[in-house]
Amino acid sequence: MPKAAMRRPAAARERARPMDRFLRADPWGYRALFLALALLLLFLRLLPLGSRPGAFPGPDLLLCLTFAWMMRRPDYLPVGLIVAVTLVEDLVLMRPPGLWTALIVLATEFLRSRTALTRELNFVTEWLLAAGLMLGMLIAYRFVFALSFLPQPSFGHALVQILWSVLAYPVVVGLSRLSFDLKKPATGEIDDFGRRL
Per residue in 59-80, pLDDT tens? Predict the structure, then answer.
């Protein structure tokens, strides 16, 4: 494939917003952005919003964000960053430390090992894959709780959160694309600095 076909048009690159150019300059820009977003989402979960008894749980936006970014640019999410963010979430939300973290690492590494496949998926198939992983993580999480005889929320309560997360996934993907220019690279595409994506 000719190099010209692999590069985005020069006009499109020139129209890139300053923030987008800054983030694309180094993967650490996106990693810092992911960390900031994760901390913001965790802070919002700590706020007493909709916390009345019997209220339906909201979506797990951090899980949606992690899957959406992993499907598009797994190089932006090293496993150490995922472990650190999710472990802090476990501790702050008073979950058994490490269990949910381990499940997220297994799911994201499953996606990372199939990067060539996931970059070719259409969005509907990607959405179904994300939904399947979320449901599988829920079942595994509750199975470990049952084996350990630990108290856990009702299955219906947990299932509602997963359903909300599945519905929120396209919104997170869309906002990541519109706000941060996060998208799947085409096969053979190179960035503004000549690096293969």
Answer: 999 999 999 999 999 999 999 9
User: How many Cβ atoms sit within 10 Å of the Cβ of residue 64?
Assistant: 24
Q: What CA–CA distance (Å, rounded) separates 160 from 154?
A: 10
Phi/psi at 196 (5° precision): -70, 135
Q: Tell me the range of 17-31, 37-51, 166-180 where mean pLDDT is highest.
A: 166-180
User: Tokens standing for 66?
Assistant: 């992690």
Closest CA to 41 of 69, 19, 76: 69
End-to-end CA distance of the chain: 15
Residues in the chain, total: 197
Label residue 183 left, alpha or beta by phi (over 0 means left) and psi (-120 to 50 means alpha).
beta
| Tokens coding 123 | 């969005």
Which pLDDT score is estimated for 19? 54
What whole-number distance in Å separates Cα of residue 172 and Cα of residue 175?
5
- Give the amino acid at 20: D
User: Three-state SS for 120?
Assistant: coil
Question: For residues 109 and 34, what is the distance between their CA atoms, to the nearest angstrom?
Answer: 17
Q: How many whole angstroms separate alpha carbon 137 and alpha carbon 1?
A: 40
Q: What is the Cα–Cα distance from 47 to 31, expressed in whole angstroms? A: 25
User: Hunting for tokens 């070719």 — which residue is that?
Assistant: 120
Dihedral (CA of 144, 148, 153, 156) sign: positive
Point out which residues pair with 61 in neighbouring strands.
none
